[in-house]
Amino acid sequence: MDMVCDDDSMPLQRKKVCVIGAGMAGLAAARELRREGHDVTVLEQSGDVGGQWLYDPRLDLADPLGADEPVKVHSSIYASLRLISARENMGFTDFHFAPKDDGGRDQRRFPGHREVYLYLKDFCDTFGLMELVRLNTRVLRVAMQQQPASRCRQWAVRSVDLAKAETEEVFDAVVVANGHYSQPRVPSIQGMEAWSGRQMHSHSYRTPEPFRGEVVVVVGSGESGKDIAMEVRQVAKEVHLVAQSMKEVTPGLAKVLAKHGASLHVQLHLERLCEDRRAVFGDGSSVVADTVIYCTGYDYSFPFLDTAGAVTVDDNRVGPLFEHVFPPSLAPSLSFIGIPIKVFAPWFFEAQAKWVAQVLSGRRTLPPEEEMLRSVEEWYRSREIASVPKKYTHDVSLFDITYMDEFGDKYCDFPRVGRWNTELLVASYINMLENLETFRDDYQDTDSIRKGVEAWQLAAQEIQVNQAASVGAQIQSWTS
């Protein structure tokens, strides 16, 4: 059980904290840590903030499957990507992701990826976070600093900049926020080593043009698989989308297949790849293909992190982590922000970051190590009883907001998810299932959603007016 320190006479501790990554989770962490009075340094390997949302047209042509670790290109976003979550359900509690009238901004409810990047840039500018961020700085190694005479654990962080100059610094705490949509998860398909066609992971997909006139097999019918298959179909000779089962053929996908059946087909299971470039499917049918694109997800990857085995990644289970944040044996000096998937982001990352910041300052305390470990084991057991595969350990369903609300209540007095937000989420999801091609632009709001959105827009306007006056003073107090 997390506890709040009620002793006002106890001074809060100011820690020197390193945040790894300046994406959505890292920026949430940076702001909350500084709000709590910590000395914050953010190390970001790219040339700008934004993480995944910083679109990178480059491809790692030497490693299109992304088998190397770490990958050389961080972002996995393709040029046409648009959100599948409504913007009203994304954003920080006090910095709404509201449409902006500025020229060139995307005001749609489901905007393109660039709008999220610009929103994160606005967030940085508003809260003066850029001064905390070191760009073009790649973390090489994070390891415990050996200090036998001291009871305080510290971390040595070695990094390298563009000039290939290496630096090693010591921090009181490290917050890992490097994201988990960069290291491709590649399936093992019989014959893939000998297949003579082009194979790549969706991590290396940017535009459909390279596939013009080709026969393309897209493995994986999740959101990105369907998106990419529908886009490539416009230029390819034909596209075969491989699903695990007929359950993945939603009514919306069935409509797309009926409309574009001449060039888009669904297959069940990719059985093997043959040297003569045939792709053989589960029913024995085959097609001679030019390219296979694996839309098979991503692995959690922390190649820089040396915890002497205290934290491991096993079939995409990062653990042990108390509440997906703190490794019990290394808490609170090591923490992870942004591990859970299927959560309201960055809202939930903000809640996690607030908790981490307050634990490091001493405002809140963690349970004993044994109790945290017991909690982790209980979580694992509950997932096993529910027949949830290990690789979905950190899958916190958006449709069950109980976990998110309970987390906010228990650990950082965080606001609960609004009822209309949940209703909007469910309505958007159902619309996507039913109308795959049009759900982002054609939707009907209920009265309660409409009222919620109106209140949200008014709050956004009020926040913008108030922030101009308050943030400057806030930043001055943080830096003094």
Automatic annotation (TrEMBL):
<keyword id="KW-0274">FAD</keyword>
<keyword id="KW-0521">NADP</keyword>
<dbReference type="InterPro" id="IPR036188">
    <property type="entry name" value="FAD/NAD-bd_sf"/>
</dbReference>
<dbReference type="InterPro" id="IPR000960">
    <property type="entry name" value="Flavin_mOase"/>
</dbReference>
<dbReference type="GO" id="GO:0004499">
    <property type="term" value="F:N,N-dimethylaniline monooxygenase activity"/>
</dbReference>
<dbReference type="InterPro" id="IPR020946">
    <property type="entry name" value="Flavin_mOase-like"/>
</dbReference>
<comment type="function">
    <text>Catalyzes the conversion of methylthioalkyl glucosinolates of any chain length into methylsulfinylalkyl glucosinolates.</text>
</comment>
<dbReference type="InterPro" id="IPR050346">
    <property type="entry name" value="FMO-like"/>
</dbReference>
<dbReference type="Pfam" id="PF00743">
    <property type="entry name" value="FMO-like"/>
</dbReference>
<keyword id="KW-0560">Oxidoreductase</keyword>
<keyword id="KW-0285">Flavoprotein</keyword>
<protein>
    <recommendedName>
        <fullName>Flavin-containing monooxygenase</fullName>
        <ecNumber>1.-.-.-</ecNumber>
    </recommendedName>
</protein>
<dbReference type="GO" id="GO:0050660">
    <property type="term" value="F:flavin adenine dinucleotide binding"/>
</dbReference>
<keyword id="KW-0503">Monooxygenase</keyword>
<dbReference type="GO" id="GO:0050661">
    <property type="term" value="F:NADP binding"/>
</dbReference>
<comment type="similarity">
    <text>Belongs to the FMO family.</text>
</comment>
